[in-house]
Amino acid sequence: MFSKFKRWREQRILAKSQITLQQWQRAQSELPVLDQLDEDDQSKLFKLATLFLNYKTISGAHGFEITDAVRQSIALQACLPILNLNLDWYSGWSSIIVYPAGFTSTTSEVDAFGVTHTKNNHRSGEAWLRGPVILSWKDTEHAGIRDGHNVVIHEFVHKLDMLNGRANGFPPMQKGMEQSTWTKQMGNAFEDFQLNPKPGIDRYGATNPAEFFAVLSEVFFETPDLLIEAYPDLYKLMTQFFLQSPLAPRR
Ligand SMILES: [Zn+2]
Predict the structure, then answer these.
(1) For residue 95, what is the enclosing H or E element?
(2) Beta strand 103-110 with 57-60: parallel, antiparallel or unpaired?
């Protein structure tokens, strides 16, 4: 009954959407990372992005103006990782905040002696547990060009990771996947990556397992051949998690 109501509600949202197919196609043409999608997947992505924009609010900070093009670009890239999952993977939070450029975020940590250390970190994006996703437009604008970096995919993959608590590189598994296989393969690769950086994979991934998963996801969608070259077993594992294979010829 509930899923019937949900479907009906989604149909209504899609029917009432002001965004035309041409607008979605224009936004998509700016994002080479979506080039490999066939027509069915494109239309699925446009629908998902329409629902995404209905459920999430996108607001500008520091005077940044949110245009339709900004909204559509963020929605398309955010929905790529969940193309074959669903919007429930982004549940429990609703807001996306966009800064004009990189921003500084302050973190404080208490050390073993009880002393609090405050650090200012320069960021291009952030994802808060049960809170907003924050993006720098300067970095988002240059995402999606198949260079292996994608701040939108990165931050939204943290959100998938946070579905079962703090981001730690271990998101909820898909049906049929073994948590132990994920832990073992990701753990081994993370240890290896800390000692042996790989071409095309951002060193930032060596920070911790959560960043490793987010950085690998950027490469998985943007430059999958480099991930296959570096960690073929992880590429396969990630196809099982995302239920898609960005390298598969679709056109
Ligand atoms: Zn991160």
Answers:
(1) strand 95-99
(2) unpaired
Mean pLDDT of 219-245: 97
Domain ranges of the chain: 18-242
pTM, entire model? 0.93
Residue 153 Cα, ligand 1 centroid: separation in angstroms?
10
Q: At which residue do the structure tokens 């994802």 appear?
A: 127
How far apart are the CA of 216 and the centre of ligand 1, in A? 11
User: Distance between CA atoms of 131 and 133, rounded to whole angstroms?
Assistant: 7
**pLDDT score recorded for residue 115:** 84
The correct CATH number of 18-242 out of 1.10.472.150, 3.30.70.1060, 1.10.240.10, 1.10.1200.10 is 1.10.472.150
With cut-offs at 50, 70 and 90, classify the pLDDT of residue 178.
Answer: very high
